[in-house]
Amino acid sequence: MTLHFDSDSLSQRLTTVKPSPTIAITRLAAELRRSGKDIIALSQGEPDFDTPEHVKKAAKDAIDAGATKYTDVDGTPELKRAIVQKFKNENGLDYDVPNISVGTGGKQVIFNAFSATLDEGDEVIIPAPYWVSYPDMVLLTGGVPVTVECREEDGFKLTASALEGAITERTKWLVLNSPSNPTGAGYSRAELKALADVLLRHPKVLVLTDDMYEHLRYDGWEFSTIAAVEPRLRERVLTCNGVSKAYAMTGWRIGYAGGPAELIKSMATIQSQSTTNPSSVSQAAAVAALTGPLDFLAERNAVFLERRDLALASLNSSFGLSCRAPDGAFYLFPSCAGVIGKQTPNGRVLSSDVEFATYLLESVGVAVVPGSAFGLGPYFRISFATATDRLTAACQRIGEACASLR
Fold first, then answer.
1. Distance, CA of 132 to CA of 374 (rounded, Å)
2. Contact by Cβ (8 Å): 212, 178
3. pLDDT of 40 higher than 70
4. Are strands 123-128 and 100-103 parallel, antiparallel or unpaired?
5. Are the CB atoms for 239 and 175 separated by under 8 Å?
6. Pairing state of beta strands 331-332 and 380-383?
């Protein structure tokens, strides 16, 4: 008798969770590429630049020095001290080593925080559009994601009145992401202060701020983080960040956070029973990243800005599409409302952003992520963190696909 795994053995909680749409679309694009099709993937948020040389050298030196053993569960003292200085010098935040957590990527840090604090039924306010992983991480840790739609006319940002209306007696966390994935929208200091004023009236609500894209910014927009804007919230804020985006270190898997010492200690307990420490070599590289020169960022941001403006002009001249300029990150979030209800050359009527994204992939070989995956349609996300010539070709293809609709 052949025995099979019974799907009834899976947890009920798992049935509420979806695989990452960005990874799924990237995989589908890869499959089409392997079949011989010319696919341009604008679906994954990964800089096409290389990790800086001084960072790679630090990793090689660490290997040669034998720094390949277990480290402290949630980060080496050297890395934690570097993070303390980063927060002080760049963000005006005074943390100490016991206030710092290091994880295997920013995603683990956030997951640890939710695991350490959420009980069944606790609510987490998540402005939409949102990074695709936030709601599912809340569900996996027993919480209830409460999404609040942020309209394009509000810059895709949460307003103070919308926040006030979303808070209930079960609210445990508010999640803020600035600059945002997927829109690139960034909160001004004044906008964060307005949200902080609401939070001061609700002392039990914690704040998780995801600042992963802070160094990728355009047009003079200035980055602020809420714990620095309103110091009275400091003991309720977990300020999350990492080295993945700014330093082109996505594969090194180092995320970190600063927050209340008791929360940080509890997150370390969670991590001690999952992955234990992040890679020792990656931590050594992260020290070099955080303490080394940042002059390379200006050159890279100039390239990103050029690509942003190129793609903006092309998309805004395409039939049925419109797109606002992002303040930071490397994403565009165009509206495709103008193509909904239109007919493709093979006679199919497009009824959603998902169908439009599928049409682009199948008809012109461009992979994008539908906005509904981020909680708001009809939009789609493209990443302009790709080679300029490929981005140009992709935007031309999108324009041609739109022009073919009737």
1. 5
2. no
3. yes
4. unpaired
5. no
6. antiparallel
| Mean pLDDT of all residues in 27-50 | 89
Question: Would you list the DSSP string of 99-137?
Answer: GEEEESSHHHHHHHHHHHH--TT-EEEEEES--THHHHH
Angle among Cα 162, 166, 169 to the nearest 5 degrees reads 150
- Asked if 282 and 324 count as a contact pair (C-beta separation under 8 A), the reply is no
Residue whose C-alpha is closest to residue 168's, from 123, 102, 114, 223: 123
| Token pair for 25 | 């679309």
Helix 280-291 crosses helix 77-91 at what angle (to 10 degrees)?
Answer: 30
Residue that has been written with the tokens 């001084």 in this structure: 54
Average pLDDT over residues 141-155: 97
Is residue 3 very low, low, confident or very high in pLDDT (cuts 50, 70, 90)? low
Contacts 24+ apart (CB under 8 A), 372-375: 373/21, 373/22, 373/132, 374/128, 374/129, 374/130, 374/131, 374/132, 374/182, 374/333, 375/126, 375/128, 375/129, 375/130, 375/135, 375/147, 375/149
Give the list of residues 6+ apart from residue 152 with CB closer than 8 angstroms, or none: 324, 335
Please spell the DSSP secondary structure of 261-301, one letter per residue.
Answer: HHHHHHHHHHHHTTT-SPPHHHHHHHHHHHHS--HHHHHHH
Q: Does residue 129 have a cis bond before it (omega within 30 degrees)?
A: yes
For the entire predicted model, the pTM comes to: 0.95
Helix (H) or strand (E) holding 213: none
Cα 382 to chain centroid, rounded = 13
The β-bridge partners of 41 are: 367
The domains found in the chain, sorted by start residue, are: 7-50+296-403 (3.90.1150.10), 69-291 (3.40.640.10)
CA distance 292 to 287: 8
Length of the chain in residues, anyone? Answer: 406
Which value, in Å, is the radius of gyration of the alpha carbons in the chain?
22
What pLDDT, in 10s, does the model give residues 323-353?
999 999 999 999 999 999 999 999 999 999 9
